[in-house]
Amino acid sequence: MVKEPRPGRVKTRLGQDIGMTRSAWWFRHQSAALLRRLVDPQWDVFLAVSPDGEGMSSRVWPPKFPRLPQGSGDLGDRMARMFQTVPAGPVCIIGADIPGIQRQHIAQAFLALGNHDAVFGPAMDGGFWLTGLKRVGPVPVDLFKDVRWSTRHALADSLATLKGKRIAMVAALQDVDTYADLCALREQKSTT
Prior knowledge:
four-stranded mixed sheet; Spore Coat Polysaccharide Biosynthesis Protein SpsA, Chain A; 7 helices; three-stranded parallel sheet; alpha/beta
């Protein structure tokens, strides 16, 4: 899921700390690096773009990746729509603001869907960087309803919409929403 990297439209909480132009620049380069890392013959990569019109015709994103408009609604509405729109089979949706995502994380998530109905990759702030569905039947109608997005409750609320489903968890990763998150990532890199 990617937003067109325009100042004031993307990474606005980070932009409040470092400036909107710098935060859009960070997102654009982070997304490009992520796309380069994720190409793998084991899966197809689609870009769910926002805003719809501008994202579908954008020259920012490499043309080799098929694009789908995210459509309207909150994050949950848009992710649920992607689960219903993409071709049949297991699907994982990720955000583009998680510098630590590697191919092995995606492979682990798809592997987990072999014997689970859903998979999540928790984020350190109580949200999640990945969600996936096996999609053997229809997408649950209540999926992501009443989730408190951008709060420490986002993952717990999302899990509550999948009652009775077998859910797997993969690695917890750090997303970047604020300057403090960016600093935490730098510190983590310097100690590893």
